Amino acid sequence: MYQFNYIRPTTLDDAAAQLGSADDPKLLAGGQTLIPTLKARLAMPSDLIDISALKELAFIRAEGDAITIGAGTTHADVSVSPEVLKAIPALAHLAGMIGDPAVRHRGTIGGSIANNDPAADYPGACLALDAKIHTTKRLIEADKFFTGMFETALEPDEIIKEVTFPHPEKAAYAKFRNPASRYAMVGVFVAKGPWGIRVAVTGAGQNGVYRCEEMEAALAKSWTPEAVANIKIAAKGLNSDMHGTAEYRAHLITVMAKRAVEASLT
To answer: Which pLDDT band, with edges at 50, 70 and 90, does 219 fall under?
Structure first.
């Protein structure tokens, strides 16, 4: 690692002030991406601002027809939350499939969506469930939050506070995991609610998470596995690497979408 200043604020306001005044700071929450990056000397922050102990960021709250989750809430807590299991079981299922137990007990929902790894799971849930991301400055709709691979609409001095997920009528997530990392080679989250029908794909796109409008249109006509079973996804614009070609991922999108719709009906 390179040398940096380590700061552990006691309040979110203090963290925001430190973030705004440092030369080239990084926020540390669960550290599941940042710590390996620092160890590999791929990042050189001037200041490391540790927000992992801020209790005001770790909560799950049921609010009418929505669930609000604090940015510092771990994947493990989301996966077993009675509120999430009752209102959005697909979200609890997704959280329970992230990484391994060690990752789930350290990684946070805010860290996941702020990093916007193209193979992460939570961005798919946010996009499909029409989530609202609340920051220290504003509210950002999921459609406008994820702007590209490892890129978001967050400003340099902006911190995610919480994420609000409205209750869906139907929802499910299906993922084809990389056997080593458990990251999604392809993950598809389908959801139907007051906001309409959404199909979010993660792990496949070169620009990160995205919505599959062709599948959304098909499911609007018929919410059945058969509606998406024969949709052929183009390989153009999809990732191709040692784990799978773009053509393979294109095929997996259809397979995972079909499985997700099947799961939403059980």
So the answer is: very high
Domains in the chain: boundaries: 1-51, 170-264
Top CATH class of 170-264 equals alpha beta
Rounded Cα–Cα distance for residues 116 and 97 (Å): 17
Strands 132-135 and 184-193, bridge-based pairing = unpaired
Q: Which residues of 163-193 are buried (b: 16+ CB within 10 A; e: fewer)?
A: bbbbbbebbbbbbbbeeeebbbbbbbbbbbb
pLDDT tens-digit map of 123-133: 999 999 999 99
